[in-house]
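F.,

This is the one I mentioned.
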């Protein structure tokens, strides 16, 4: 309890310098690694982000972890993330192994209970996504897709005279059926 508010100036100085160094390192490496590092997160990206945050905090606060060791850990994680995402962009098999596929959880007026159960989603979450899009009636919804980045995409029913291609030149309803297979 004696060091609850303040310990000493040496420790405070070390933490201030380590904070600045870790901050510059993470900002620099994030810039070098590209937009992917700060994009909407899928499961893999989320895990790496949490690990980098944890290592950064440990490097700042724990005297037993020198900056160079923390930096090596952070750079290693960014490098692994880069390599994994590079391979995933080239190999569809690896991509489907490492990333989750989008799943349709509502289609043409019907909740898909098995899909919702697998994704651990409840009806209220789908309704919330609809409201966020300004939709209050299920009859206006063609489908709701649970995306790889854990966002819910609400696809409105197309108006008959305004059907536009969505995927590979197919109308939205046909594109959704392709996703469901």
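My design for it:
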């Amino acid at each position: 309890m004696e060091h609850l508010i303040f310990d000493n100036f040496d420790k405070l100085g070390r933490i201030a310098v380590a904070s600045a160094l870790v901050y510059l390192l993470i900002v620099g490496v994030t810039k070098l690694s590209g937009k992917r590092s700060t994009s909407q997160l899928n499961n893999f990206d989320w895990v790496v982000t949490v690990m980098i945050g944890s290592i950064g905090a440990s490097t700042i606060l724990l005297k037993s972890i020198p900056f160079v060791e923390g930096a090596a850990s952070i750079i290693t994680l960014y490098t692994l993330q880069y390599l994994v995402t590079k391979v995933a962009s080239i190999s569809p098999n690896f991509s489907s192994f490492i990333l989750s596929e989008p799943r349709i959880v509502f289609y043409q007026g019907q909740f898909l209970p098995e899909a919702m159960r697998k994704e651990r989603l409840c009806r209220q979450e789908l309704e919330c996504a609809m409201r966020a899009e300004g939709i209050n009636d299920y009859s206006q919804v063609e489908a709701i897709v649970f995306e790889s980045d854990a966002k819910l995409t609400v696809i409105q029913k197309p108006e008959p005279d305004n059907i536009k291609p969505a995927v590979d030149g197919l109308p939205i309803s046909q594109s959704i059926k392709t996703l469901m297979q």
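The helical segments are 9-33, 43-61, 67-90, 92-98, 113-119, 123-132, 172-180.

Talk soon.
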